[in-house]
TrEMBL record, chain A:
GO terms for molecular function: GTP binding; GTPase activity; nickel cation binding. Residues 1-21 are annotated as: Disordered. GTP binds at G35, P36, V37, G38, S39, G40, K41, T42. Facilitates the functional incorporation of the urease nickel metallocenter. This process requires GTP hydrolysis, probably effectuated by UreG. This is Urease accessory protein UreG. Belongs to the SIMIBI class G3E GTPase family. UreG subfamily. GO terms for biological process: urea catabolic process. Residues 1-10 have a biased composition (Basic and acidic residues). One of its GO terms (cellular component) is cytoplasm. Homodimer. UreD, UreF and UreG form a complex that acts as a GTP-hydrolysis-dependent molecular chaperone, activating the urease apoprotein by helping to assemble the nickel containing metallocenter of UreC. The UreE protein probably delivers the nickel. Keywords: Chaperone, Cytoplasm, GTP-binding, Nickel insertion, Nucleotide-binding.
UniProtKB/TrEMBL annotation, chain B:
This is Urease accessory protein UreF. It comes from Streptomyces coeruleorubidus. It comes from the Bacteria. It holds the Pfam family UreF. Its main location: cytoplasm.
Length: 229, 224
């Protein structure tokens, strides 16, 4: 993350990736969650909110493709107070809103920071998309790609920008592996081959320890961000 | 002045949030008013001659240096639907961000301070054109073309319309777009002496009504 001093900071929302808010304070760390439809992005966001909300000031932006269901799910589950959850409409093209034209998402993040005061962390959930969808560096500081074991155990082998380059790869729903015939060892080996040293977490949100590994990774990102990395 | 800057500003990929809006096409498709290339052409012609001509005149006036606060008020007066006002300000705010990052300028900074939640998009567009070294004619062309290119692109997604047909619609509207721009720039120049009442006030009631209905839908592909 760089500080670009060429840009003017007077007035709201000058530039996307600046680490400082217009008022000079350090802005919240922004983490994107992407991945195929139904892989468990919203469930992971909900679990992260429950795990982190007592220690951090956090907020969520959802990008629903044609409904507000993800935001409504989070509201219904009461993982955060309603003023900390915002939905962005993406015009039939979820990857455009997180990569090619991030303006609506930046605005949502900015409005959340304005409305609920300084935040430590903003989670941005992408609408379910394909394996090529990644977040712009102008929108998020780090991204998590969530796939699941039921989508086929060959997805790590197929690779693609999400699987290969995301800062964290989450293989979700490991509890279902026996029922869908997915070979977790093979998924782990393929992921390792695609990602070299980049981390991979296998998790099931239906059993302990649930989201604990991902929450630990988020805490480490926050510590690095606070240290100005 | 660089004419190529016009291509940057007018590019449908200019990252200013337009991709999430259908310019009323989603409501019109649902109501059966757009069902293919011919009715898309009718819809676009109607939008160009009403909302498009107003937007083009506002953009040209802003590019001429007319007070953006007065222009924004004039835009409000010409936009009866609250949903459309919200959409116009949202798009204006997103364009402001993109334009300030692309062509840093004191005038855009001042506009952002005056309208932290966004001014009407055509007003911002005119000031963005100014910041890019472009003139009122260029600004009017951007606004007029956007008024039809947005619905055309959206209809390709909504109806799986043949993209060649949609692009053909836009091409055939080109001479009409020229004339709309000519009149818009003329009106904008009159604003210098006569004030914002010289701006056109064409309105399409079905666009306004459709926008209000659309805003109430629980499930939709586009934000407006
Ligand atoms: N068995 C099992 N089901 C899970 C797990 N995590 C999520 N699910 C379920 O999977 C379904 C989809 O989860 P979501 O969190 O909505 O998935 P998503 O990625 O947000 O989906 P979209 O936003 O529609 O792309 C829901 O029914 C969840 O309850 C898990 O670890 N195990
Ligand atoms: Mg979801």
């Amino acid at each position: 993350m760089h500080l670009d001093h060429d840009h003017t900071h007077d007035g709201p929302g000058a530039v996307s990736a600046d680490a400082l808010r217009p008022d000079g304070g350090r802005r919240a760390l922004r983490i994107g969650l992407g991945g195929p439809v139904g892989s468990g992005k919203t469930a992971t966001v909900a679990a992260l909110c429950r795990a982190l909300r007592d220690e951090l000031s956090l907020a969520v932006v959802t990008n629903d493709i044609y409904t507000r269901e993800d935001a409504e799910f989070l509201l219904r589950e009461a993982v955060l107070p309603p003023e900390r959850i915002t939905a962005v409409e993406t015009g039939a093209c979820p990857h455009t809103a997180i990569r090619d034209d991030i303006s609506a998402n930046l605005e949502a993040v900015e409005d959340l920071e304005d409305a609920v005061g300084p935040l430590d962390l903003v989670l941005v959930e992408s609408g379910g998309d394909n394996l090529t969808a990644t977040f712009s560096k102008g929108l998020v500081d780090a991204q998590i790609f969530v796939i699941d074991v039921a989508g086929g155990d060959d997805i790590p082998r197929k690779g693609g920008p999400g699987v290969t380059t995301a800062d964290l790869l989450v293989v979700n729903k490991t509890d279902l592996a026996p029922y869908v015939g997915s070979d977790l060892a093979r998924m782990a080996a393929d992921a390792k081959a695609q990602r070299a040293e980049l981390p991979v977490v296998f998790q099931s949100l239906r059993s302990e320890p649930g989201v604990a590994d991902v929450a630990a990774w988020v805490r480490a990102q926050l510590a690095a961000w606070a240290a100005g990395a | 002045m660089s004419r190529a800057a016009l291509l940057v500003l007018a590019d449908g990929r200019f990252p200013a949030g337009g991709h999430a809006h259908s310019g009323g096409a989603e409501a019109a498709v649902k109501a059966g008013r757009i069902s293919g290339a011919a009715s898309l052409a009718d819809f676009c012609r109607g939008r160009l001659q009403t909302a498009g001509s107003v937007a083009a005149a506002l953009a040209a006036a802003a590019a001429l240096g007319i007070d953006p606060v007065a222009l924004d008020r004039a835009a409000d007066a010409r936009t009866p639907s609250p949903a459309l006002r919200v959409a116009a300000r949202k798009l204006g705010r997103q364009l402001m961000r993109a334009a300030r990052a692309t062509w840093p300028s004191a005038e855009l900074d001042a506009l952002a301070r005056e309208f932290p939640k966004g001014a009407h998009q055509p007003v911002v567009l005119g000031l963005a054109a100014r910041a890019a070294g472009l003139g009122p004619v260029d600004a009017a062309y951007c606004a007029a073309y956007e008024s039809v290119s947005g619905p055309a692109t959206a209809t390709v997604r909504l109806l799986s319309l043949d993209p060649f047909d949609a692009t053909g619609v836009l091409a055939r509207l080109a001479p009409e777009t020229d004339r709309v721009v000519d009149r818009a720039v003329e009106a904008a120049r009159r604003v210098v002496d006569e004030g914002v009442d010289a701006l056109p006030a064409g309105s399409a009631p079905l666009l306004e009504i459709g926008a209000e209905i659309h805003a109430g839908w629980p499930v939709r592909l586009f934000a407006s």
